Amino acid sequence: MAIPRYSSGDVSPAPLARDLEFPVSGRIAKNRFLKSPMAEFLATWSPRHVYERGIPTDEIIELYRRWGEGKNNWGVIVTGNIDTNWAILNAPGDTIITPDCLFEGERFEKFTKLAAAAKADGSLIVGQITHPGRQILASVSPTTVSASDVQLEPKDGQTYAKPHAATRAEMKKIVDEFAYAAEYLEKVGFDGIELHAAHGYLIAQFLSRTTNKRTDEYGVQTTENRMRFFSDVVRGIKARVSPKFIVSAKLNSVEFQEGGVTPDEAREVCETLEKLGLDFVELSGGTYEDLGLKFERESTQIREGFFLKFAQAISQALGPDRKMKLYLTGGMRSVGSMVSALDSVDGIGLARPAAAEPRLASDIVEGRASGALKPLTAGEEFPVSLMAAGAQIWQIARGKEPFQLWDEKVLAHLEQDIKTWLGEKAEDGDKLEHTKPPMYTGPQNEYGSSEAVVA
Ligand SMILES: Cc1cc2nc3c(=O)[nH]c(=O)nc-3n(C[C@H](O)[C@H](O)[C@H](O)COP(=O)(O)O)c2cc1C
To answer: Of ligand 1's atoms, which has the minimum distance to the CA of residue 353?
Structure first.
């Protein structure tokens, strides 16, 4: 049977194979692909002993070894969320770096191994550092900080922490936590950091009018004000890392659309980031409330087009002298659409396709794949595709080839596994002992035992 893959005709992948020099750090990505951040949920975890949380496990190191493998694989590999506080977490099972973490010991050694594994064949490894702000389950922390006290509405039986407006002292502490995490990552051998300023996390909460109701100089009155906390974080980081260290950010198209930020303001945000010395911005869509995939029932082309329009507006607004590089992430699937996106942006971010196929960048650059694998419709939509990617990531981390969602039997098996997993999660309740992704229990092969799936 022919393996279903996205394709847009006979388009040469050559533009995707070109290297990319970052303007500030001078680092060079070996091609135009960026493995987008995906939370791994595989770090150490203890519900009670916070210092035992967030250490990269051997499974995580194995996962990054696979993404790092191959001379034409991912130019840039961005990790999943790295939390910067012991308690205010994106999710249990994330890796964590706080100012309590010393530049020695088990955590330091494991992060060092992770970096070395990812870089073995010349990829750049970039750690995504995060503060979730209001976007944290009440079971993980009942209280939190945000730009203002706008609580996230309960959803799917989950309730979220009650936020208060961050005080100046709290904001300064968070800036220090971000900066320390960046310094730590440089010391363990990472090439850079990506600030999570998308998907409704804390920095995005300051940027968006829906969550920022402040009236002080961090408030809603001007873009400059809403940017101020973001700028403080970037400056705090830049003060602690070397000039060769990449500082980048992930930004969100939805915040710009629905938070009422005009294209002019979006341009202002990006201009400020360029002035602050960011090497690149990864542009994506979605918040927790709406993972940006309200377009999920429309064709991939329409989705690709939606994010592309946003990227085009930003790139045009920044003008021909733009130095800061732009990556576009979200629904990019065929080589043709990736290559045409390079008219507006410099690189392409892929998340779910990189969980399904850790070698996908190599397969495209070397001309073996016309795009990502095409799952059955039910396997492509949220939330199944999100949980599937989590399960595939765990397979790779355990030394297995990931299952493929174009196969009906596999999908049926996965759906059963997801049901079991959701049941276990519900039983776990607030105990927070159940932190791993769904485990796929169907037939599977050892990693590398079968040919990489290309067709
Ligand atoms: C399992 C999973 C975990 C994710 N974790 C993160 C994360 O830690 N940080 C982040 O910025 N985005 C995260 N995302 C979003 C992706 O980086 C990406 O923006 C989104 O999946 C759209 O890209 P895609 O269509 O290529 O999958 C995650 C996505 C998936 C599927």
So the answer is: 26
Residue partners of 412: CB distance under 8 A and separation at least 6: none
pLDDT in tens, 192-232: 999 999 888 999 999 988 899 999 999 988 989 999 999 99
H helix intervals, 259-383: 263-276, 300-318, 335-341, 352-356, 360-365, 377-380
Q: Which of 393, 246, 242, 233 is nearest to 327 (CA)?
A: 246
Total number of residues shown for the chain: 455
Q: How far is the CA of 349 from the centre of ligand 1 (A)?
A: 10
* Of 124, 128, 126, 131, residue with least CA distance to 145: 131
Distance between Cα 351 and ligand 1 center (Å): 5
Least reliable range by pLDDT among 47-56, 293-302, 385-394: 293-302
- 296, 352, 394, 414, best to mutate for ligand 1 pocket (most atoms within 8 Å of CB): 352
Mean pLDDT of the region 100-124: 98
CA–centroid distance, 167 to ligand 1, in Å, is 30
Domains and CATH numbers, the chain: 14-370 (3.20.20.70), 374-443 (no CATH)
Say how many Å lie between the CA of residue 72 and the centre of ligand 1.
22
Could you tell me the CA-to-CA distances from 295 to 260, 298, 330 in Å, in that order?
19, 5, 11
Phi and psi at residue 42, to the nearest 5°: -125, 10
